[in-house]
Write a structure and sequence with these properties.
Blueprint lengths: L9 H12 L4 E7 L10 H5 L4 E7 L6 H13 L3 E5 L7 H11 L1 H9 L7 E7 L5 H9 L4 E2 L12 E3 L4 E4 L3 E2 L7 H9 L10 H15 L3 H6 L7 H11 L11 H13 L11 H10 L1
The chain binds guanosine-5',3'-tetraphosphate.
Length: 289
């Protein structure tokens, strides 16, 4: 399936992020825990080079816990401090404060030696659209959210959220578009609803999603809908249509509606907890490059 995707103001967004990063001690990058590779824009690695890096696997409430462990390992090996969070519920958010401190230990020590004490750490949240940046910022800032306003030496218009005595957060997240050169990346982002559904055929998307889930998590779909198992996507969709009474005029099963229903249930986490990519596959891909 081919995507029509227009990244719009990519260059401007990159430039803005580059400027913002000059003010920052630590970059807190959010990815979607269901697709920790596809929801990560590799440009951020280049832009944030030399900064302390934290990677948060957000929406872990929707992701496969066993796979999450492997992804934590994968990114730790790449030098990130990694944690999982559920920004919607606020789980794992409190720990982020400690991780930020840990990420900046060297800087704090350097400052201390130069007689600079209690200079707040400045953090910035970055990520592709829909990974949960705004939700995270709200959740993270809830405890001590007082806007400190413009600060001397800070670009006019920048707002900082003072979280506490030790940390400030830039209140606008850095947004970069995903990388779509790899069609699989686009596809996985479509599965989780990060690309507008109007850009593709939901029925075709659903068939591909079923193929993946049946290969990696066989029987989960049938269990949820309480239908007979099959690894053939059309048959599963017919059974879902029958079960949910999704019938077109003429007594035909409405497979488009069944596909819509499955995709929505998947995105809402009703079918179970899944990851749609594995670190091993990405490592193979990286080694083949
Ligand atoms: P963005 O700023 O990075 O673009 O993302 P945003 O915070 O707007 O979040 C995108 C969607 O992801 C929102 O859902 C939000 O509620 C959901 N979300 C964020 N963090 C989590 C999480 O940890 N777990 C789960 N399950 N969902 C999360 P929405 O459907 O667009 O809005 P709403 O209906 O939830 O208000």
């Amino acid at each position: 399936m081919q995507f029509q995707w227009y990244p719009g103001h990519m260059t401007k967004a990159r430039r803005m992020m580059q400027e913002d990063l000059k003010l920052i001690d630590v970059v807190v990058e959010l990815v979607d825990a269901r697709v920790p590779y596809s929801s990560k824009n590799p440009d951020i690695d280049v832009l944030a080079n030399g900064k302390s890096r934290i990677l948060l696997l957000n929406k872990y409430d929707l992701a496969d816990p066993l796979q999450i462990k492997e992804w934590v390992d994968y990114y730790e090996k790449k030098g990130f401090l990694v944690s999982k969070v559920n920004s919607k519920k606020g789980t794992g958010i409190r720990e982020v404060q400690d991780i930020i401190r840990k990420a900046c230990e060297k800087k704090i020590e350097r400052d201390r030696k130069r007689g600079i004490i209690n200079r707040p750490i400045r953090a910035m949240i970055v990520g592709i659209p829909n990974v949960g940046k705004s939700t995270f910022i709200n959740s993270f800032a809830k405890k001590a959210c007082t806007k400190t306003g413009n600060k001397p030496g800070v670009t006019k218009g920048k707002q900082w959220i003072r979280l506490n005595k030790t940390t400030e957060l830039l209140d606008t997240p850095g947004i970069l578009w995903p990388k779509f050169e790899d069609q699989n990346v686009g596809l996985r982002l479509a599965y989780i609803g990060s690309i507008k559904d109007e850009l593709f055929n939901v029925y075709e998307l659903c068939r591909l999603l079923i193929e993946y889930l049946e290969k990696e998590y066989p029987g989960k779909i049938a269990d949820f809908y309480e239908i007979e198992k099959s690894d053939v996507s059309e048959i599963l969709l017919e059974r879902i249509a029958e079960r949910r009474k999704l019938i077109k005029s003429g007594a035909e099963y409405d497979l488009d509606k069944a596909a819509r229903c499955l995709v929505d249930d998947f995105r809402a986490g009703k079918l179970g907890l899944f990851c749609l990519e594995r670190p091993d596959d990405i490592l193979c891909q990286e080694q083949g490059e």
